[in-house]
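Input.
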Amino acid sequence: MVVVPRGSALIGSPSGEPGRQANEATPHEVDIAKPFAVGRFAISFAEWDACVASGGCDAWRPGDFDMGRGRKPVIFVSFDNANAYLSWLRRKTGKDYRLLSEAEWEYAARGCANPKCPAQPFWFGQISPEVAVYDWRYSYGGSPRAEEAPKTAPVDFGQPNPFGLYNMLGNVRQWTADCWTPKPSSARSDGAAVTTGDCGERVTRGGAWSDKPQALRAAARSSGLSDEQSPQIGFRVARTLSAP
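Output.
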């Protein structure tokens, strides 16, 4: 786990950002009043399989789409499956593990606790096959391409962002705690999850191995039905920290 510091930052996308969709928020400040812990990596198949082996995770054994298990990110896990893992983890550790809210996720993905940081699509600058996992056959803003067929990479692929988090952008989309709202105007400025709207559909963030690069932008939003098990979607855990 990595402790993400408290702070304020701009989230959302400006109107001129290439690839921007109508369901994205316009730039606004979010205030994260307390630090919180986030998994350095997405949950891997090895971690999921350990949960199943110890009697948790509803005994669900997802397939790997012929992309490998072990340190590869777990896929074919729904929002409901992710919460089963969290329930097991809470029982095992006694700690308050949960999913990130959508606002917390974008704050963590940008890796900046200061609203003066530049509002850029990716924390690493220009996207390329060396820094993120996506459909490398497509370019974004003149970025280089590669011809290899896209597939997941190990959860520790590449370099961590400034908060120490790996693959917040790319590899697998990640479930958040928020109910889906096609217009994010209801997003809270305090970083809490939005629990109104269509709660049978949940927000996913981050883009996946099979997505075009514009889907990996920090402000890009997507969703899935709460029981959807997709080869593009995984998750990472977060934890509320006790007051000092």
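The helical segments are 45-53, 79-93, 102-110.
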